[in-house]
Amino acid sequence: MEFKYAVLILSLLLLIFLLYKEIKRASKARLLWRIFASIIAVSCFALLIIPVKYKSGFKNNANEIILLTKGADLDELAKIRGAKYVLGASNAKVNNAVPIPDLSYFLANHKDVRKLNIYGEGLSKHELRNLHEYELNFHPSEGITGIISASWPAQIKSTQQLLVQGIYQNKSEEKVKLLFKGMGSSIDSISVEGKSSKSFSFSTQPKQIGKAVYNLISFDGKDTLAKEPVPFLVDEQLPFKVLILASFPDFEYKFLKKWLYDNHYPLAFRSQISKDKYSSEFLAMDSINLNKISTNSIKKFDILIIDEEELAAMNAGERSAIDAAVTGGMGLFIRVSSLKALTPASSKFGRFEVSNTKEKELKVMLKDEKHKFSSLPLEQKLFLRSTQNDLPLLTDGGGKVLVNSTIKGAGKVLVSSLPSTFNWLLTGKKNDFTTYWSTILSAAVKKRNENQSLKILPQFPVVNEKARLIVDIPTSGKIPSLNIDSIRLTPLQNIELPFEWEAVFYPTKNGWHNLVVNQSAEPFFIYQKTDWQALKIQQKILATRQFVAKAKIKESKIKQSAVNVEEELSIWWFFVGFLLASAFLWFEARILDAK
Amino acid sequence: MIKTEGQKWIYDLRMKWIWLHLVRLFVISLAVALLLSAVLIYVLHMPPLVCCIILPLALIIALLRKPIWKTSQQEFCRYANNKYPELEESADLLIQNPDSLSLLEQLQRSKIEKRITEISSPQEPVKKLYAGLALLATALIISFAIAKIPKIKENNKSGSHALRPLPAIKENTLPEISDFSATIIPPAYTGKPERKQKQFSIKAETGAKINWKIETNIAVERLKITFNDKESVSLKASNKERTTWLFSKTLDKTGFYQLEIDGKKSDLYQLEAVADLPVIIKITRSKQHTTIDVGQPQKFNLNTVLTDDYGVNDAFISATMASGKGEGVSFTEKKLSFNTRFNNEKNKVLNREIDLKSLGMKPGDELYFFVKAMDNHGQSSRSDVYFVSIVDTTELMSMAGMTNGVNLVPEYFRSQRQIIIDTEKLLKAQSSLAADAFKNRSNELGIDQKLLRLRYGQFLGEENETEIGGDHDDHAEHSGEEEKFGDVTAIMDKYAHKHDIAEDATFFEPEMKAQLKAVLTEMWNSELRLRTYKPQEALPYEYKALRMLKDLQQKSRAYVAKTTVKTASLKPEKRLSGELDKITQPVQNMSAAQKDQRTTNLKTTLALLESRKAGKKFSEGDRYLLSETEKYMIGAAADNPATYLNALTSLRRLSLNKILHQKDIDVVQQAIQKMIKGDSPKPQIQTSLPAATLYQNYFNNLNKTGR
User: Fold this and answer.
1) Which residues of A touch B690 (CB under 8 A)?
2) Which helix (H) or strand (E) holds A515?
């Protein structure tokens, strides 16, 4: 204070002295100007020494805070005013921001806070759970480089294809190569250009039986960016029972029979010799009486392959037995060869004939698989119509349906107008034959109920974090025993679904674990904390965004309070004034006056 | 120094002489050096630097032999006196100091000095220089030849099929082994010299003898060598210190081997046998089917190229002749040799003209032949079968199938057959006929041929006499008609060119037409020869025309089957009403054959290795599985050591070692995946969630209420 006044008095004295000198000067030219310049020069000089402060007030929402989470853009945040809080200790470096160790605790302490502006990657699910009452704004961070979405079956059957699909997001300038690797060899790869994202789809037929961990590895040039594990399980193929009823034996049946037999599928084959006389063959199963088809005899089979003539020749009792079996889940595959439908079961699909085919060869393709078949030496004329209620499985090159399917009860009915496929075997295209029949039979065969099923939450359970195991067990009423590595878990029964049991588990080791449910093991994989980082962040952003969008709380009345801030005026302004004024004085004395 | 003109002349002469001589010496020594270094480098295989020493050496020797610079002016004077009589034996005067000469001498000297300007410089050194240059040229040619010849020889020897040795790979050897060498003695038929290598992995010709010589740095009790993990041989030490070990074996098939020193096993080493390939026979001339027409020479040329990786030992033509017709066909086999000697060449071009007549072939006979070749290893190979047939004229001339009692053909129209007969008759009678008469008859035959051609041409709708199947001239007969006004068709006719369209006039198919045209072409050719009095040349064309006409006749025949069979009418009510009680219903039962455990085991091993990767140790059961896998892999490695040997080594390391190497697992997994072949898709059974009664109830209720 004293210093300020001293400066003021001294400058006042200086001013008086200067004014006196000016007035007393001989030349009276531009006196007024000179006095003015002197006053300005002295006052500016004084203000250079004494800082000028003023108070400014702006409207601020007292019950609105800015919450910074991981990955927030700090440069952008510097421009935004308001009370800033940082969640967790990791971002403590952020300027002017108050760290919050725990959000719910903070909110409980600050009841006046009604609105949260969230920046960065967002909040985790359990943090969001407490924010139902609040108004939320979410400003997600730009996104990160890495696999932001991925999916693959956790369990496949042997000889089945493993399909790994997902999206790679590349935010960097560099080109990134994504490599799918497993069993010591590279399987497939794609490259993602800088500043773009690309979806990938890798498929392979794993050769092992049992557990395996494949890897998705991303490189930019030489550095490995990330190595994400893809664990999955390959199970042994379960055989199913096949019944073939033929009106006459032909090569199609012969080759089909041989193939099924070679692969150890239990098979019963009946073909008519004469009226009510049949020849039967039983491969890898006990012989039963097949002369009369009854509900009892057909019960054991998972799929029935029959030609339309044979089906038409059956009596009503037999046909109703088949109908009942199909409703109960059995698959029915009917081969048709004439334009006119002979039985109600096979008349589900309309048929039409193409009169003049120039094609000497038939090209076929599966509806949903990429397999490229070699063409069959057939002049195919008969095709099936397709309606809204059915699912075509096989078409010719022009999209005309050859094999169509529909559901009946719990079972499936397939009709095929393709007369022969054994030509593939004759020409050595074994893979075409097996792919065709595998797809067809898989689509038709009766579904088998699993003994138990395991679902694990979250998608990527991580070491030292909570994992929820949800087990489905058909036998209700009895508490199942759940064990992981001899740790006994205590299951909790679902209130609405009595067969669903839930248990909580904190894994301590990564890798494969076994959940033993009533003596039968269910393997599952625990990831490391660093695995699938990008994907988890992306999920967090999405979850927060969804939560914010869902929060339907109306904008609560927000009190606005004035916040006063003292600000200092820059001394440069005064310096400039001082300079100009003294420059004028000097100039006037030396040059203008000298004239 | 030089004062007078004469002195200068002598001096110039000397300098020129010396310089030319030096140049000549350089040229000659260069030639000698070239020759010598060519011999040394290419024949004696010395380093190329040798020539840098040889050239100066030769030069020095040449210079020392005749030190030309030592020749004095006096000597030159003597030479000049001898050479040029104009100097009158007074060249010496030129070099002497003029002041010291007597008057007479001075007079003589001035006389000569006037003359010397007219004397031409000597030709002798220049000639010698030329000789030297010629020598250099010869030396150049010879040394070039020396440099090139061995290479050409080498090329001839090695051929295209040089055995490439295995790529040098770093091998782990046992520390006890101080020195090792394998001597490969290829079998004699390859004609290759024996070679020696320091590498354990061996690639050699099948049947090669391999001598191993292993030297150890310490005395070794036992040294064993194991092939394909099956046959194990104990080696015997060849010296008392038990440090040198010898072993030899004949390589008969691909595999691998391992050394064992006092129970300590080495890595697995590859043994690759390269099999000898049979001779490749390529027939470059002669078509697969050759038909020899009448008049054509009854012989053909056969050109073949034989290629083998080591040498062709023998080749011959195996020919089978078929003669006769129908049931009376007889076969005779003959072995025809190429009249050359075989010197185990890698490539051999063979020609052989086969005279069918000398083989005893008659018209109508056929010859089947193939070339058989043997390489020097005794492997034989043969080419495709080729056919040669001689057309039977009697067959053509026979009237079989179309004999007709009455000759309906008008006189002016003779058949092709008749033309042939007449031509042959004419040729027979040629010697007894006058030239004019012969020409006349030949011309007449030509006219007959023309008539026949026109006749057949009509089938094709030809109008023109000169062209075969060609177009026609414009008709000029449209004039002189009455003009009708307003008649559109008449006006159109005037400008249009109307008559039958030739192509539509006949009923023949295009293919037949083409053949008919070909017949006409042959007739044309025959007519041309007949008209130009060359009936001998016309004969082949006549025959060919006849043969094609016969073919046409055969083609136009149709076969109509008899249709007089009557079948009893069916009684539908009797169908399927027979007694069937005696018919048994066959039931066949087959149980599943024991599944091959190999694929299953391999698949399980893959998963086992995967868990090992995660750090899990092998259990006892796992070890059994690993040993099974090892067995399979030994089998695979014996057939394909290049692919599986590394994996086998890694697998052994995995099953023995406690320390885990990620790379080993990768290698083994890759190999196992290669071993599992043809894993074709199998039908999958789909699974649904555990059937809780809740779901089932829901489904049942849906079923009830639905419809």
Assistant:
1) 449-453, 472-474, 499
2) strand A511-517
Is this complex scored with an ipTM above 0.90? no
In the listed set A444, A470, A486, which residue is the last one of a domain according to the structure?
Answer: A444
- Do A412 and A511 reside in the same domain of the chain? no
pLDDT for B408 equals: 41
Q: Examine the domain organization and report whether A43 and A59 are in the same domain.
A: no
**Pairs across A and B, CB distance < 8 A:** 182
Distance from CA of B632 to the nearest CA of A (A): 16
Residue of B118 and B446 predicted with greater confidence: B446
**Which comes out higher in pLDDT, residue A531 or B695?**
A531
The whole domain housing A42 covers 3-52+570-592
User: A511, B614: Cβ pair inside 8 Å?
Assistant: yes
Q: What's the number of CA atoms in the CB half-sphere (13 Å) around residue A106?
A: 18
Q: Are residues A221 and A260 in the same domain?
A: no
Q: Does the pLDDT value for residue A142 go beyond 90?
A: no
Instruction: Provide the CATH number for the domain around residue A463.
Output: 2.60.40.10
Residue A536 falls inside a structural domain: no
Looking at the domain assignment, is residue A350 inside a domain? yes
Picking from A210, A237, A273, the nearest residue to B682 by CB comes out as A237
Kindly state whether residue A534 falls inside one of the protein's structural domains: no
Same domain flag for A326 and A390? yes
What's the pLDDT at B399? 56
The answer to the question of residue A532 being in a domain is no
Nearest to A473 by CA among A505, A506, A495, A497: A497
Confidence of residue A48 (pLDDT cuts 50, 70, 90): confident
A468: tokens are 């929820």
Domain with A403 in it: what CATH number?
Answer: 3.40.50.880
The answer on A294 and A411 residing in a single domain is: yes
Examine the domain organization and report whether A12 and A121 are in the same domain. Answer: no
Last residue of a domain, one of A212, A236, A260: A236
Q: Once rounded to an integer, what is the mean pLDDT over residues B118-137? A: 82
Give the closest of A234, A264, A438 to B595, CB-based: A264
Q: Which residues contact A23 (CB under 8 A, 6 or more apart)?
A: A31, A35
Q: Which residues of B touch A440 (CB under 8 A)?
A: 683
User: Residue B701: which residues within 8 A CB-CB, separation 6 or more?
Assistant: none
Judged against a pLDDT cut of 80, whether residue B156 lies above it is answered with: no
Task: Give residue B159's pLDDT.
Answer: 43
How close, in Å, is residue B675 to chain A by CA atoms? 10
Q: What is the pLDDT of residues A356-397, one digit of tens each?
A: 767 778 888 888 777 888 888 888 888 998 888 889 999 988
Closest Cβ–Cβ partner in B665, B683, B688 for A438: B683
In B, which residues are within 8 Å of A472 by CB distance?
Answer: 689-690, 692
pLDDT at A437: 92
Alpha-carbon distance of B298 to B355, in angstroms, equals 6
Query: How does residue B160 score in pLDDT terms, banded at 50, 70 and 90?
Result: very low
For B279-312, write each residue's pLDDT tens digit. Answer: 888 888 777 788 887 777 888 888 888 888 888 8
Total domain count for chain A?
5
Contact A279 B688 (CB under 8 A): no
Out of A159, A210, A476, closest to residue B681 by CB: A159
Asked if residue A458 has a cis previous peptide bond (ω within 30° of 0), the answer is yes
My answer on whether A257 and A339 are in the same domain is yes
Question: In this structure, are strands A210-220 and A223-235 parallel, antiparallel, or unpaired?
Answer: antiparallel
Q: Are residues A432 and A319 in the same domain?
A: yes
| C-alpha pair distances (Å), B165 with each of A369, A425, A506, B196, B259 | 47, 42, 60, 11, 22
Taking the CA of residue B560 and the nearest CA in chain A, the distance in Å comes to 30
Instruction: Report how far residue A428's alpha carbon sits from residue A431's, in angstroms, rounded to the nearest whole number.
Output: 8
Q: What percent of chain B is predicted at pLDDT more than 90?
A: 1
How far, in Å, CA of B173 to CA of B67, rounded?
65
Mean pLDDT, range B663-682, rounded to an integer? 83
Q: pTM to 2 decimals?
A: 0.59
Q: How far apart are CA A11 and CA A41, in angstroms?
A: 10
Min distance B270 CA to chain A CA atoms (Å): 23
Q: Is the pLDDT of residue B163 over 80?
A: no
